[in-house]
Amino acid sequence: MDDTIVAMATAMGETSIHILRMSGSKAGTIIEECFEPQNMERWSRRENFTLNLGVFRDELIVLDEVLVGRMLAPSSYTGEDVYEINCHGGTFVAQRILQTCIRHGAQLAEPGEFSKRAFLNGKMDLIQAEAVIDLICSRTETSANLALTQLRGGLSETIVSLREKILETLAFIEAGIDFPEDDVETLDRETLEIRVNMALSDTRHLLAGSNTGKILRDGLLTVIVGRPNVGKSSLLNALLQEERAIVTDIPGTTRDEIRESVSVGGILLKLVDTAGICESQDLVERLGIERTWKALQEAELILLVVQANVPLTKDEYHILNIYSEKVIIIINKIDLLGKEEIISEYKDGHWIPFSVLQHSGFEELEAEVRRRVYQGEAVLASDPLLSNVRQISALERCDASLKQASESIKMGMPWDILSIDLHEALHYISEITGHDVQESLLEDIFSRFCIGK
């Protein structure tokens, strides 16, 4: 933390501008040694949050004309003095400026080191820090909004409130254990049980929405399946709005998996177009069908494409029976049929009439995907949602400890036993925000960031 770090904040390559970020106690000194401002009077006033035009030098050699942004502690991203150097976008120019900063005393930053310093300096908690990388990696408007809500503290407020409830309850128990003879405020068992159950209810509410949050963050592995020539590849192309898969009237055109991603109703669907399921003597086609069955086992959502005037096959019935909870039935080529041609087994139950040619069925598919992700209306897009596997795992362990504490109260266990359960719950909830976290975990989290963030 005593070192001054520097790194590229933009991806290397030829572009209009590059930005280098420098943070630490020596950042100001290095800038003074290398930067010659055009307006010295304005620069010398050390005004915060300003951009200053000038030239960047390596000793007597001018490297580039730059804009230097100044963000002084404690009001910067890292909580330290931060300077951002905006130079022209040539790779060679940016590298020369970076090397000059290093020669004058800065060190090359590790991945995520700027955000790690922001966390360690109290500028953000661990939920907000992890939201930074989620925002960078977001691929849909919904996932970006979720990450932004977390970055701005929406989820942190809920988790911190839950942590304070556990901490306050634990404090009453500890007071009763440490000062049994003194006149200190303690809780009776009935009040204690109410408090623990309230905290338990809060964890259950957060966990109920965590699956939705994880889907919004990571997307749904969605397998398109059906018999040959039923329109699976046409559906893929229609969703992607491009000719990604070859479509012909010849059955078995798709021999291997085709994987693409698309946003449907703000939900990222990681699509897998598969070989048509049928009996085949062709070795290559049989290998493709084997992959189809394997993909179904891994799928989080299955789009079963069928044809309305053709009865379900044995394989299609098998898919519906085994994977019913994650199947959406797509009745394709509906534009070619009259109502009287739709066989009776499709007239009841949940299915979506679809026509790629007439571009119908897309809105119904989008609505059904959103209904499943948001569990009907049980989870709202505006709810503070857990989306990170690490955070969900920690909250699940907190939930288990609170449940054990609740059961211990009912069994009349002594206060010191209850204290152990609540200490565990406090530890796990504190891991989420970073109030109680091991250095090795921090290293793992921030190593996933790009250099310069």
Q: Ends: how far apart?
A: 16 Å
How are the strands of the largest sheet arranged?
3-4-5-6-2-1-7
CATH topology of the largest domain: Rossmann fold
What's the quaternary structure here? single chain
Q: Rg to the nearest angstrom? A: 29 Å
CATH architectural arrangement of the largest domain: 3-Layer(aba) Sandwich
Portion in strands: 15-25%
* CATH class bucket of the largest domain: Alpha Beta
Strand element count: 13
Largest sheet: 7 strands, mixed
Overall pLDDT level: 85
What is the H/E order? EEHEHEEEHEHHHHHHEHEEHEHEEHHHH
User: In terms of structural class, how would the helical and strand content be classed?
Assistant: alpha/beta
CATH superfamily of the largest domain: P-loop containing nucleotide triphosphate hydrolases
**How many DSSP H or I helices?**
16
> What overall form do the CA principal axes indicate?
flat
Q: What's the structural domain tally?
A: 3
Low-confidence stretches: 245-253
Helix content: 40-55%
What does this structure look like?
The protein has 453 residues and is α/β, with parallel strands linked by helices. It folds into three domains: 5-109, Gyrase A, domain 2 (2-Layer Sandwich), CATH 3.30.1360.120; 130-209 and 386-446, tRNA modification GTPase MnmE domain 2 (Four Helix Bundle (Hemerythrin (Met), subunit A)), CATH 1.20.120.430; 216-373, Rossmann fold. Helices cover 45% and strands 17% of the residues. The chain contains 16 helices and 13 strands. The strands form two sheets. A seven-stranded mixed beta sheet has the order 3-4-5-6-2-1-7.
